[in-house]
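User: I'm writing a tutorial on reading structure tokens. Could you give me a worked example: one chain, its sequence, then its tokens, then a sentence or two explaining what the tokens reveal?
Assistant: Sure. Here is the example chain.
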Amino acid sequence: MDQAACCEHVRRALAEDIGQGDATSNALIPSDALSNGLIVSRQPLTVAGLPLAQTAFHEICPKLKITSLSMDGDTLESGKPLMQVEGATRAILSSERTALNYLQRLSGIATLTNRFFQEIAGTKARLLDTRKTTPGWRMLEKYAVARGGGHNHRMGLHDMVLIKDNHLAALHNEPNPIATAINRARNEHPKLKIEIEADTPEQALAAIEAGADIVLLDNMKPDVIRKIVRANGRRSRLEASGGVTLDNIRGIAETGVDFISVGALTHSAAAVDIALDFQ
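And here are its predicted structure tokens:
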């Protein structure tokens, strides 16, 4: 993760939460009070977000002593410690919610990603995320996917060409929209990978013949995917996407596809239960 961007993200989050000041902690807690807090898991999870949590605490009080008791990417059982925070009580209380928000959200993504990752263990398929991320959180959520065992697809519209159904629909007057789209993209962006979405086996084979680097097989059944894998002959790399669940991802992976992309990794991951308890 970009450290400067992460620090700025945390500063905005703290400003949103604290505003003009922590009215409760400032009213109740003496300024010289000290505490020792332990951040613990309350369910099995895969950890992500510890650097952001530490940044949140240190933005409020650089003198807080932070001890990491786990690492991002670790899989923990319920009741296991993630981090210890020692120092000014007011500072810990004022930054607690922001730190936990990062940990709960990002660990939730890492945890779900790891469940999908474990389902395809032993196959050649790589698990990919998508652009279906929370606005302003893409860098962080894709980081969490990587900590859970997944791989990042394109970061945005700028670093890879992905020709989707609406792009092809806009080229409906062309005699061969698929070949036209791939050729135009290749001429305009010769250094970028060219991927194209196929809704049917016929579109997939046309994209392979036209020289696409990657063909996305959208919402296709495993038996259909398997036939396209055989016909492809390793000319293009193949990605399965659409309707992928924990129940069916293994069968999709066993077709021989190179990638499986799952939007749910970021758009449907539930936050996990993590708490900070004073000792």
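What the tokens reveal: The chain is about 45% helix and 20% strand. The chain has two domains: 3-111+270-278, 118-267.
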